Amino acid sequence: MTTVQGTVAPGFERVRDAFEENFRRRGELGAACCVYVKGERVVDLWGGLRDATSRTPWEADTMVIVFSTTKGMTAVALAIAHSQGLFEWDEPVATYWPEFAQGGKAAVTVRQLLSHQAGLSAVDEPLDPPKLADLDALAKILAAQKPAWEPGSRSGYHAFSIGWYESELLRRVDPKKRSAGRFFADEVAKPLGIDFFIGLPDSVTNDAIANIVAFTKAKMLFKINPKTLPWPFVRDLLMPKRLAARTLNNPKIRSSELVKMPEYRTVEMPASNGIGSARAIARVYSSMATGGTELGIKAATFEALKKAPVLPSGGPRDLVLHVDAAFSCGFTKPCPMLQFGTSAAAFGTPGAGGSFGFADPDRALGYAYVMNRMGYHIANDPREKALRDATYACLRG
To answer: Global pTM?
Structure first.
């Protein structure tokens, strides 16, 4: 029997039940879940193993890589920059970053870039840690990249690239010229007192981080499902010249290496290698769900985050994921791929393997789930979905 630790507020016992059930029936290894409502922490649970080999238990402060759930943390940093008047959503990116105009990108707006509509999901030049660490050199590579489709006409999930583009945009508009990881550390993590890092500092030891049990491409073939892991996505991922493969295979790393290899966890990958706790992610989204005023979010920015997304002219079917998706201001919005929150006002991002964090302004709710055994769903991992459903059942109750 796995020992589940932590607390739930009266009325949220069903979330603990669902969390325990994940270990009994859904193959959970180690995980944590945290929920805030109206600024109060009502769920704070953790359990299982931080490391399967050593049988080390998951602790209250255990951190883990959360893959694309990182995108939401970076999007919060962008929202703060917008509130500071550093850029406008509908201004061309080239206004702030002139070199970006190369290759037919002069008219691409910040809104299109942050909505995965810029056609820049794949980067043609091979990338590795030294190139990613040299932000000036990386900026030249990104600026020279040509779009894979007409910007604004379709969306295609910018799995890795959106974070690097966002970081360079921040460097161009921030008076202090901070990268996304540095900006997040200064403007989000420090004010909220949380442990979440985009580019892990040397001060964080291996003992603080859960080891990932990654999925394999071979096993993906047995997990194909139109609603959770569509065949066109898996097919394209396995064919090197297809857009999904070009998007997700540069740099050429396996998911587990992002946390095990120092060169990949210390470099900034603002869309994919954030490392932190469920408590940290839920705390950020709690602040955002209640207006973000403690982070300096202004009313106009908050309203923009809550608005329904501006869909591409060619419709919502994503060219990389092959599902109907919706993105806005760097966040995933409720859509056929992932229905979450109480209304279209909700915003957040899921991560590969099952992690998820989001804000529900209607309920003033901040939610986060993280784990170290990766699942095979693009979104709605059964473990996470059980916790989310239980949370809303408790709210209704």
So the answer is: 0.97
